[in-house]
Amino acid sequence: MPKLTVALLFGGRSSEHTISCATAGGVLEAIDRDKYDVIPIGITREGAFTLEEDRAQKFVLNPQDMPEIHDNGTRIVWPDSAASREFRYIDTDGSTHSLGTVDVVFPILHGRWGEDGTLQGLLELIGIPYVGDGVLASALGMDKHFAKIVFAQAGIPVAPGITVSSREWQDDPASVVSDARALGWPVFVKPARAGSSVGVTKVLDAAGLAGAMEIGLAEDSKVLIEATIVGREIECGVLAGRNGGATRVSLAGEIVVSGREFYDFDAKYLDALGIDVVCPTTLTDHQTAQVRDFAARAFDAIGGAGLARADFFLTESGFVINELNTMPGFTPISMFPKCWLATGMSYPQLIDELIELGLQTVR
Length: 363
What we know:
3 domains, 16 strands, 31% helix, alpha+beta, Rossmann fold, D-amino Acid Aminotransferase, Chain A, domain 1, Dna Ligase, domain 1
């Protein structure tokens, strides 16, 4: 059977650039080279598409030297119409070379300009199959404000909170402080369209709100202020069904926080102390069935067609959804691959499954 050619896109313009690089490193190391030829395409922080080295070790997470796409002078030339899937690149000397026909694009981009539907729209315009969720699902999953509206409509409990734009904060900060106080301290301030806990702050009282708003609004033009939910942090991996079948949900994992304020960036990606990522976790049969049902319903509600990680809090009164991440991390310590491994799907098998879903999805 002939190999498929996969264009792996990573890096990007968002604040999650390094996490995207690290995720790509994991895929480059694990993808089955007997099945796939891989074209690594890096995107610099300025948005230049470059031909990258096919070397997983270059993109390992290292707190002292975080992976980065640097502009090496090459440029990727996209297909010039939907009738062609030929990728080319311009070398540093100005010469143009063919990279051959691409069967499927695997966009491992986190955050804006990659996970939010923008890149998905480009790929649909030029008619190339791709891994992951479509334009609408990606946009909804990225925007926590609109996602909460959709989840609530689907009957899934969401955290109490408010959305505040930069203009509203600038025009009437006192009113925002009053609304936040009504939620009860502490609250969490988070950018509406960011991930990996970038820009998230736990605010203990009114005095801390201004600093948290500045951090959050540096990432996005609107932020969510949400009540603190006391409960266990439970997460599930989600995959679209094959050939129109039912959405699939992994066993549930748990983030056990013992020595930190919350599951922040360092804990997620730099293996910081005070956090244990456990999968599978211990739940009753009823709780397991309920969280898997909520995860599938959330995925279906946004029109998911690829993958996601569904994050919940398990409180005394039941589950509350925190978010649905439509391009979760694939780093060695990430929850998404761990949960599928516990469910019986290895990392290489998971990559195979995602590529197959990308090829068969009708956009």
